[in-house]
Amino acid sequence: MTTLQTPTTPAAAGPATTGRRGRRPRPGRRGTLVAFLTPALALFLLLVIAPIVVASYASLYKWNGFGLPENFVGLDNYTRAFADPTFRGDLWRALVLIVLSLVIQLPAALGLAMLLNQPLRGRSVYRLVFFAPYVLSEVTTAVLFTLVFSPNRGLGGTISRWLGADAGAVFADPDTVLFAVFLVVSWKYFGLYMILFLAARQGIPKELSEAATTDGAGAWQTFRYVTLPLLGPTIRISVFLSVIGTIQLFDMVWVLTGGGPIHASETMAVTMYQYGFRRFEVGYASAISIVMFALSLVFALFYQRVVLRRDTEGALTSQGVQR
Amino acid sequence: MTAHLSRRSLLGLVGAGAGAYLLSACSDGGSDEPDGPQTINWWHIQNTEPMLPVWAAVAQEYQGAHTGVTVDIQPLENEAFKTKLTTATQAGSPPDLFQSWGGGVLRQQVDAGLVKDLTDDVQPWIGGLLPAAMQPFTIDGRIYGVPFDVGMVGFWYNKDLFAKAGITTTPTTWAGVLDVVRKLKAAGTVPIALAGKEKWPAHFYWAYLAMRIGGLGALQQAAKDKNFDTPDFVAAGERLKELVDLQPFQKGFLGADYSSPDGQAATMGNGGAAMELMGQWAPSVQASSSTGKKGIGDKLGFFPFPAVDGGKGVASEVFGGGNGFAVGKDAPTATVDFLKTLLSADNQRKAAQTGAVLPTVREAAPAISDPNNKVVAESLASATGFQLYLDQAYPPAVGQQVNDSVAELIAGTKTPAQIVKDISAVAKSQ
Question: What residues form the membrane-spanning segments (chain B) (predicted)?
Answer without folding.
Answer: none
